[in-house]
Amino acid sequence: MLYFKSDYTEGAHPAILEALVRTNLVSQPGYGDDCFTAAAQEKIRLACGCPEAEVYLLTGGTQTNLVVISSLLRRWEGVVCAESGHIAVHEAGAIEFSGHKVLPLPSHAGKLCAEELAALVERFYADETHDHMVFPGMVYLSQPTELGTLYTKAELEAIAAVCRRYEMPLYLDGARLGYGLAAEGNELGLADIAALADVFYIGGTKVGALCGEAVVFPRGNMPPHFATMVKQQGAMLAKGRLLGVQFDALFTDGLYFEIGREAVALAMKLKKAFVQKGYPLFLDSPTNQQFVILTAEQEARLAREAAFERWEPVGDGCYAERFVTSWATTEEQVDALIALL
Amino acid sequence: MLYFKSDYTEGAHPAILEALVRTNLVSQPGYGDDCFTAAAQEKIRLACGCPEAEVYLLTGGTQTNLVVISSLLRRWEGVVCAESGHIAVHEAGAIEFSGHKVLPLPSHAGKLCAEELAALVERFYADETHDHMVFPGMVYLSQPTELGTLYTKAELEAIAAVCRRYEMPLYLDGARLGYGLAAEGNELGLADIAALADVFYIGGTKVGALCGEAVVFPRGNMPPHFATMVKQQGAMLAKGRLLGVQFDALFTDGLYFEIGREAVALAMKLKKAFVQKGYPLFLDSPTNQQFVILTAEQEARLAREAAFERWEPVGDGCYAERFVTSWATTEEQVDALIALL
Amino acid sequence: MLYFKSDYTEGAHPAILEALVRTNLVSQPGYGDDCFTAAAQEKIRLACGCPEAEVYLLTGGTQTNLVVISSLLRRWEGVVCAESGHIAVHEAGAIEFSGHKVLPLPSHAGKLCAEELAALVERFYADETHDHMVFPGMVYLSQPTELGTLYTKAELEAIAAVCRRYEMPLYLDGARLGYGLAAEGNELGLADIAALADVFYIGGTKVGALCGEAVVFPRGNMPPHFATMVKQQGAMLAKGRLLGVQFDALFTDGLYFEIGREAVALAMKLKKAFVQKGYPLFLDSPTNQQFVILTAEQEARLAREAAFERWEPVGDGCYAERFVTSWATTEEQVDALIALL
Amino acid sequence: MLYFKSDYTEGAHPAILEALVRTNLVSQPGYGDDCFTAAAQEKIRLACGCPEAEVYLLTGGTQTNLVVISSLLRRWEGVVCAESGHIAVHEAGAIEFSGHKVLPLPSHAGKLCAEELAALVERFYADETHDHMVFPGMVYLSQPTELGTLYTKAELEAIAAVCRRYEMPLYLDGARLGYGLAAEGNELGLADIAALADVFYIGGTKVGALCGEAVVFPRGNMPPHFATMVKQQGAMLAKGRLLGVQFDALFTDGLYFEIGREAVALAMKLKKAFVQKGYPLFLDSPTNQQFVILTAEQEARLAREAAFERWEPVGDGCYAERFVTSWATTEEQVDALIALL
Question: pTM score > 0.90 for this model?
Answer without folding.
Answer: yes
